[in-house]
Design a protein that fits this description.
Order of helices and strands: HHEHEHEHEHEEEEEHEEHHEEHHEH
CATH topology of the largest domain: Aspartate Aminotransferase, domain 2
Strand order of the largest sheet: 1-9-8-5-4-2-3
Shape: globular
Bound molecules: pyridoxal-5'-phosphate
CATH class of the largest domain: Alpha Beta
Structural class: alpha/beta
Helix content: 25-40%
Distance between the termini: 18 Å
CATH architecture of the largest domain: 3-Layer(aba) Sandwich
Number of domains: 2
């Protein structure tokens, strides 16, 4: 058996395949000298709109900014509350605070680990305080949240839906792509995401033309006419270099997502054949599943086990990378203590935080490497 390391992510393989083509595109941007919001930015936005049937796509500086823009353009602000999941990256909640609104948490579904519509319904029944304006589900690990249930709730209560699609470029629900499901949505092109830039980049999408137009203005200091400011926005312009990188990678993302799905299916087959799978409570490995109503893009392949930390150390000893997304829920973060939540309030989220482990998954992951990952996991449980 080879003892070469299997990193949790290896971007050098994608670079080896596309580096020369991308460098030529970057050189064009440099010689044209239009480094911010150049023609590649609009070309990238239009390509996303066309390929993913999204009405308004607005490139911006990061996924975090995209979330802020997605809410600011809807007019969500002070005095408003937004319901979201406590089992996500910090930016999901901090962007709500950044628009001046209050995050209100609801627990996750134990199977998908996405925001649970029944928990949201409970919050809507019991919530007092700031007026709830929106629901902000996260398409965690590349799988769309239950859009049937969430959109029914939003319609019933007159709420807007904002998607955190940072991990789900190309995912879909009943044939509609992430980014076209909600009233607005946010993508991240951070280097570890399934569609990634050569640095920070993001995108807001908006169904309504007026909201898209407002997001476009807010991205550049609320400026519609040069140096005339209609409202206070921010600088969240997208670099032309990043758009040039993304334009090239966009041609490959559908294929890459298929390759991720192939890797995921193979993990499921191999781990099942190893005879170590079952329920978390019985000390076995719980495998991730894909809801048949959607298309999962497998941004992450996340298993669950009560012996997570020991398993992770066992893998590390064998030079196999893994990662924990996320070890501490948002309602338990020191920075959000002022929201007044307590440990124990979101049991499914807390159980997920204690048991999840993401395995190496990327389009270029080789079968022999995957075999080593599975063999190492199996040897831990035997
Ligand atoms: C990555 C991520 C973000 C933030 O994106 P950045 O581009 O890093 O700012 C927001 N939400 C989720 C769920 C993410 O995974």
């Amino acid at each position: 058996m080879s003892s070469e390391a299997v990193p949790v992510l290896d971007l050098s393989r994608q670079y080896a395949a596309l580096g020369a083509e991308i460098q030529a595109a970057v050189a064009d941007v440099c010689s044209a000298g239009r480094f911010v919001l150049g023609q590649e930015v609009r070309a990238f936005e239009q390509a996303v709109e066309r390929d993913y049937r999204i009405t308004g796509a607005i490139g911006c500086a990061s996924g975090t900014d995209a979330l802020w823009l997605a809410m600011a353009a809807l007019g969500i602000g002070p005095g408003d509350a937004v319901i979201t999941t406590p089992f996500s990256f910090f930016a999901t909640a901090s962007s709500i605070l950044r628009v001046g609104a209050t995050p209100v948490f609801a627990d996750i579904d134990p199977v998908s680990m996405n925001l649970s519509a029944s928990s949201v319904a409970e919050v809507l029944r019991e919530h007092t305080g700031d007026r709830i304006r929106a629901i902000l589900p996260v398409h965690l690990y590349g799988q769309c949240a239950d859009w049937d249930a969430l959109s029914a709730l939003a319609a019933e209560h007159g709420l807007t839906l904002v998607e955190d699609a940072a991990q789900a470029f190309g995912a879909s629900w009943r044939g509609v792509y992430a980014g076209a499901l909600g009233d607005t949505a946010a993508f991240s092109f951070y280097p570890t995401k399934n569609l990634s830039a050569w640095g920070d980049a993001g995108m807001t999408t908006a169904r309504d033309a007026a909201v898209a137009e407002r997001a476009t203005a807010l991205r550049a200091h609320g400026m519609r006419r040069r140096y005339y400011h209609d409202e206070v926005g921010w600088n969240s312009r997208l670099d032309t270099v990043q758009a040039a990188v993304l334009l090239i990678k966009l041609k490959h993302i559908a294929h890459w997502n298929q390759q991720r799905a192939r890797v995921a299916a193979r993990y499921t087959d191999l781990l099942t054949a190893a005879g170590i799978t079952g329920s978390v409570r019985d000390g076995a490995v719980l495998l991730p599943t894909a809801d048949p109503r959607g298309t999962h893009v497998w941004h992450q392949y996340v298993i669950r086990t009560l012996r997570r930390d020991d398993l992770r150390a066992h893998l590390a000893e064998r030079k196999i990378g893994s990662e924990i997304y996320y070890p501490l829920c948002l309602h338990q973060q020191d920075a959000l203590e002022h929201l007044g939540y307590k440990t124990g309030q979101f049991p499914e989220s807390e159980k997920a935080a204690a048991t999840v482990l993401a395995l190496p998954i990327y389009p270029e992951l080789r079968e022999d490497e995957q075999d080593r990952v599975v063999e190492a996991i199996a040897s831990f449980f035997r």
